[in-house]
Amino acid sequence: MKKILVTGGLGYIGSHTVVELQLAGFEVIIIDNLSNSSKEVIHGIKNITGVEPTFEELDLRDKEATISFFKKHSAISGIIHFAASKAVGESVTNPLLYYENNLSTLITILQQIQHKENISFIFSSSCTVYGQAETMPISEKAPVQQAISPYGNTKQIGEEILQDTAKIAEGLQVISLRYFNPIGAHSSTEIGELPDGVPQNLVPFITQTAIGLRQELAVFGNDYPTEDGTCIRDYIHVVDLAKAHVTALKRLLDEKHETSFEVFNIGTGKGSSVLEVIESFERVSKQSLNYKIVGRREGDVISVYADTTKANTILGWKATSTLDEAMLSAWEWEQKVRKTK
Length: 341
Ligand code: NAD
Ligand code: UFG
Known about the structure:
This protein folds into two domains: about 5-180 and about 235-265, Rossmann fold (3-Layer(aba) Sandwich), CATH 3.40.50.720; about 200-235 and about 270-340, Alpha-Beta Complex (UDP-galactose 4-epimerase, domain 1). It is globular and about 55 Å long. Helices cover about 40% and strands about 20% of the residues. The protein has helices at about 10-25, 40-50, 65-70, 90-95, 95-115, 150-170, 200-210, 240-255, 275-285, 310-315, 325-340; strands spanning about 5, 25-30, 55, 75-80, 120-125, 170-180, 180-185, 215-220, 230-235, 235, 260-265, 270-275, 290-295. The strands form four sheets. Strands 3-2-1-4-5-6-11 form a seven-stranded parallel β-sheet, with helices on both faces. Strands 7-10 form a two-stranded parallel ribbon. The structure holds nicotinamide-adenine-dinucleotide (NAD) and uridine-5'-diphosphate-4-deoxy-4-fluoro-alpha-D-galactose (UFG).
């Protein structure tokens, strides 16, 4: 059984990926500092797969502790690196927190593994690296644009650090997955997204409004040059996204990769407007949502959706869930969370 380290494995995308890794027969070790997650997620994972992953509570900014971890666990074949801070707005007000947490941790990990004979590494990147691309859908050939936020910049710099390191570290092979907008939860309702405080993202704001935690959803602008005037995104079910990590990891472990640093877009290929997401929610939850149109949110790009040809043909992965399925899973998760609180 191959041992895989999942940093940030108790977080939203990490926990769903741990489940898929275990179901695919991998042994998982999680590192998390619980800064945006809780230990209870381990039970959720175990309830789905029947296997409790090994967990090390560790802050990757603690260099000594990280070095000791890698000394203790030398038999790791792969790393999926989710651990990072991800609030775009906070990154603008506290950029150094973001550069430290998202980049110094990456560097420390790479220092520990760069001389290994064979190590596969999957990086959590984001479609934010494309900014407002000139043509839609966005392929991996679209240029990386100057980042709007320090958070986005950490993803761009992270990719550059990995690309440069993979050039000289012979045993290191890397795949960077550029996620579009992950939504939804595991169908078991054992794990899902747990936003801290008022959600900044659309889908948790919708479900929290519907459950009565928020009064109404503010739709940020309906005067964009799109069909209904609201912004367009590519919303991908988190379980589809989790499976993409397993597929990418296997590609590296089976030495099917073409270069030591590869990039794939991970989305559905379909753009949905904010109003379409609301309609989908209303359809699956059989209730109407309280919302109003307000002004634009600063920094929002008009339209972003993926060209997934490369992921479909070269990686051999394709998203299978519909927007309705993802919205239903988000709604079922919200209801479960509130019932148990
Ligand atoms: P999350 O906050 O739910 O998960 C991140 C996990 O990492 C948390 O459990 C947190 O406690 C842990 N962590 C943070 N800093 C750490 C540190 N120094 N040491 C150890 N653990 C640490 O976030 P997520 O939505 O699951 O995102 C995972 C990754 O995907 C992040 O790198 C994020 O930037 C990236 N990403 C997320 C989205 C999205 O919309 N959710 C989109 C694109 C990319
Ligand atoms: N929106 C609203 N009201 C809300 C929240 C969002 O109308 O209360 C709108 C936004 O204006 C945008 C769309 O819903 O048009 C999606 O917004 P999100 O905040 O859910 O997602 P973003 O595309 O803005 O950003 C997300 C993550 C970033 C990541 C990016 C790409 O928050 O971290 O996806 O992966 F970089």
